[in-house]
Amino acid sequence: MVKRTVRLTTGANYGLRDWLGQRVTAVVMAVFILCLAGALLVAPPQGYAGWKAIFANQWMRIAAFLFLVSLFWHAWIGVRNILMDYVHATGVRLTLQILVILSLLFYTVWSAEILWSA
Question: I need a surface site. Which of 1, 56, 66, 103 has the fewest CB within 10 A?
Fold first, then answer.
């Protein structure tokens, strides 16, 4: 019973899920960057109007949003693992994790607002 309590408190057993999450989000980000680079090589935007035209396409907005969600998820996994490894006081670690979660959720909503307001 003691071992189970320690595992729940420390957050053990995330290994494979974290590893896979990091790899999947990295692939999503890499694919988006390659597609964006290809689009920029074919038709480089000239000023604000050019950039706005690129993101006027619904598929580009969705792809950019998926990129950003993947970036935020990737960051969450990394930051959570760092906090679990180096912040040993449970209350401080949980407070920091909640602050990171709230920040990343704010950034996700803000990203959607920016992408769909243009």
Answer: 1
